[in-house]
Amino acid sequence: MVVMHVRDRESIQEAVRRFRKLVERSGLKREMRSREFYEKPSDIKRRARLRAVRRALNARRAIKTR
Q1: 23-38 pLDDT, tens digit each
Q2: pLDDT-based confidence at 58, cuts 50/70/90?
Q3: DSSP string covering 23-45, please?
Q4: How far apart are alpha carbons 45 and 41 in whole angstroms?
Q5: What span, in angstroms and rounded, lies between the C-alpha atoms of 33 and 57?
Q6: Backbone angles phi, psi at 54, to 5 degrees
Q7: CA 48 to CA 41: how far, in whole Å?
């Protein structure tokens, strides 16, 4: 849960901008998007495995270019 207090003499635009940053940093927005639709556990695992493979390939490429 994100809690924010509006400061004295703070404009609405500044408060909204600060709130948006707080929500992004807390990970709330990412969690809401992931829970928007049901995803099978096998799909979650498959995506995580593909992400790990890509990360390993990028690390291997970075080592080669040095």
Answers
A1: 999 999 999 999 999 9
A2: very high
A3: HHHHTHHHHHHHTSS---HHHHH
A4: 6
A5: 27
A6: -60, -40
A7: 11
Query: 64 vs 57, which has greater pLDDT?
Result: 57
Q: b or e along 38-48 (b: 16 or more beta carbons within 10 Å of the residue's beta carbon)?
A: eeeeeeeeeee
Number of residues that this document lists for the chain: 66
What does the alpha-carbon distance between residue 7 and residue 52 come to, in Å, rounded to a whole number? 43
Instruction: Answer yes or no: are the C-beta atoms of 18 and 3 closer than 8 Å.
Output: no
Residue in 9, 8, 61, 4 with CA at minimum distance from that of residue 28: 4
pTM of the predicted structure, to 2 decimals: 0.58
In the block, which residue shows the tokens 């995580």? 48
